[in-house]
Amino acid sequence: MHAPSQQTIEPARITRVAVAPLIGESPPGGWSNEIKPDDSVHALVAVSTDTGVTGFGSAFTDGRLVEAAARVLEPLLLGENALEPMKVSEKLHQNTFWMGRGGSLTHAISGIDIALWDILGKATGLSVGQLAGGRHRRRVTPYCSLLMDAPEVMADEIIRFREQGFRAFKIGWGPFGRRDDPALDEAIIGAARRALPDGGKLMVDAGASDAYWPNGLKWALRTADMLAAHDVAWFEEPLPPDAIDDFVELRRQSRTPIAGGEVLTRRQSYFPFFTRGAFDIVQPDVTKVGGFSEQRRIAWMAQDFGVRYVGHGWNTALGLAADLQLATALPNVDLVEYIGGSAYVDNIMTDPFSLDSDGMLTIPDKPGLGVALDPDKVARYAPDAAQLFADS
């Protein structure tokens, strides 16, 4: 008998990294110092190779920081085989301890890592989900993520997106917890609950990573009890991100599941939250945490600790595409985050995402991330868009 022949895929050597900050329609973020449309909080990243295959990713931080990080990181990337995303990304992490690893530099690495997985999929003809674990599901429910407002405005917002087909909603930030007015907080939640579709889900995000968050554990305990009475599915960021002792105690006492972790970076920072039992639901952001490679490792770790994984996704269409690929590669993922009304999600792809009749998103099964940026659409929001596509 003859041994079966093996197909060899030639290396794809990295030749260039390009960054294009997105500006013009940056969605409100809820922060105390509010984001303006021309502020940059997202950047698209392109990694080019000598085989002509280009991969695309997205990073959540000021685009100027991503541009600077790319210039610093590019010497570590040039000539590396893009078909080895975890190896290449780990090289970047290992060589940047002294540069301040874990902040915006890691956010920038996130965009590069997502692009490397996109390249690997395109080179092999497989989706990132297939490469990362297989296809456990073909579609998943998106929850529409909206900022809180006055009760009557909040209800109208829910109804607007309900009519577009969304069946699950997360509302957060805005006045919630910031006015020392528990009656207002509950009125907002009640208005949102009444506006849901039949069988709809509601999640609440306090946004306690905001600057100078005014509340502590006792507020979070009282509020969690109120949310339980309204059948809220989870209470997100109810405490400042570093308050691990308070998270542990809140989770122990709360009837509402406790979620968090969106501002942490790299898997190592999640370990104490897992070992101490701080979260019911962990929410790493693929465009911050170190990319798809780190997101997957954190999701696996969560599974081992019995913590539910739901990726944080206040980012772009490419971030959502990466979340969808991980949602199919893991056995127990039922939700992905979808910013309601963001141009950077809805208006930069050749084929925008669309909900089916059940309010679900089909997970792309084309090679790589399975989505394609539209150069003309991207150019509306990125003055440097052309350099993203120069080698593709």
TrEMBL record:
Alphabetical keyword list: Lyase
- Cite the InterPro entries for this sequence: DgoD-like, Enolase-like_C_sf, Enolase-like_N, Enolase_C-like, Mandelate_racemase_C, Mandelate_racemase_N_dom
Q: Which residues form the Mandelate racemase/muconate lactonizing enzyme C-terminal domain?
A: 151-257
Coiled-coil stretches, from where to where? Answer: none
This protein's record includes keyword Lyase: yes
- Select a single GO molecular function from the record's annotations and give it: lyase activity
CDD domains per the UniProt record, alphabetical: MR_like
Is the keyword Transport in the record? no
Q: Which domain of life is it from?
A: Bacteria
Q: What name does UniProt use for this protein? A: Mandelate racemase/muconate lactonizing enzyme family protein
Where does this protein come from, organism-wise?
Answer: Pikeienuella piscinae
Q: What is the lineage of its organism?
A: Bacteria, Pseudomonadati, Pseudomonadota, Alphaproteobacteria, Rhodobacterales
